[in-house]
């Protein structure tokens, strides 16, 4: 089974002796009783991908969906770990060159960077939930929190 993503354009084809059946559509998510399923949204027909595969259709991705770009301004890393800034005006700036990039989607996916104190707080909160008696005492965690500038 291939991997399909929401927004992919796919073609489903089933060849038989005297004829063939073909449909083309965009992959969408559909919430059903059994959970989330992927369907092919084609004119007048919306079969589930799993059903098409069970029926012997060959599915081919014609065009992959473009990754969605973040919209919240801030600092990001791209697929290669390079740093970027999305400014308040929605412009993508390559941090290493300082230049605006008009088509950053080719560097997706992007991961938002956050201040170290925010990350430290998340880690400490998780540790606090998992403290095992005798291993780490709360005062140790408070010292680490103070060191990272994390307020309670």
Walkthrough of the structure:
The chain is of the alpha+beta class and 152 residues long. It folds into 3 domains: 9-63, no CATH class; 74-112, no CATH class; 116-147, no CATH class. 20% of the residues lie in helices and 32% in strands. It is built from 3 helices and 9 strands; from the N terminus they run βββαββββββαα. It has helices at 49-54, 116-129, 138-147, and strands at residues 9-15, 20-32, 35-41, 58-63, 74-77, 83-86, 92-94, 99-100, 111-112. The chain has a 5-stranded antiparallel sheet with strand order 8-7-6-5-9, with no helix packed on it. A 4-stranded antiparallel sheet has the order 3-2-1-4. The protein is elongated, with a radius of gyration of 24 Å. The termini are far apart. 10% of the residues are buried. The mean pLDDT is 84.
Describe this protein with a few key phrases.
152 residues; alpha+beta; 3 domains; four-stranded antiparallel β-sheet
């Amino acid at each position: 089974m291939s991997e399909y993503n929401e927004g992919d354009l796919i073609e489903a084809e089933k060849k038989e002796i005297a004829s063939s059946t073909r449909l083309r559509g965009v992959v969408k998510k559909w919430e059903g009783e059994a959970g989330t399923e992927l369907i092919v949204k084609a004119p007048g027909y919306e079969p589930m991908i799993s059903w098409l595969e069970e029926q012997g259709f060959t599915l081919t991705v014609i065009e992959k969906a473009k990754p969605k770009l973040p919209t919240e301004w801030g600092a990001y890393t791209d697929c290669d770990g390079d740093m970027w800034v999305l400014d308040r005006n929605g412009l993508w700036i390559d941090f290493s060159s300082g230049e605006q990039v008009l088509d950053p989607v080719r560097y997706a996916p992007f991961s938002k960077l956050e201040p170290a104190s925010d990350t430290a707080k998340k880690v400490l909160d998780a540790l606090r939930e998992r403290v095992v008696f005798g291993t780490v005492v709360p005062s140790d965690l408070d010292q680490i929190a103070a060191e990272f500038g994390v307020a309670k």
